[in-house]
Write a structure and sequence with these properties.
Layout lengths: L22 H38 L26
Length: about 90
């Protein structure tokens, strides 16, 4: 079955093997979408993990946030003392 309108290859300047609606085009579209969605999902997961770690460090007093009141130090019985009233 010869469906090409080209009868001679003498004046052809480009030859494309993956035309519209071919398997190769759909393969790369699907791969591109899967990679993009996977990258976004990985970034969201990573950001959530880092946010949890930062919040845990701030709550433990490991990280001090500028402008935030320091966490009260625990007393000898292990209970945090009440913050002084401003």
């Amino acid at each position: 079955m010869d469906t090409s309108p080209i009868s001679s290859w003498d004046d052809v300047s480009a030859f494309f093997t993956w035309g519209a609606e071919s398997f190769g085009v759909w393969l790369f579209i699907i791969l591109g979408v899967v990679l993009f969605v996977g990258m976004i999902a990985w970034a969201v997961k990573h950001e959530n993990e880092m946010s949890e770690q930062i919040c845990a460090c701030v709550e433990n007093g490991t990280i001090v946030v500028e402008g935030a009141a320091p966490a009260p130090a625990p007393s000898s019985d292990g209970v945090a003392a009440a913050a002084p009233a401003s």
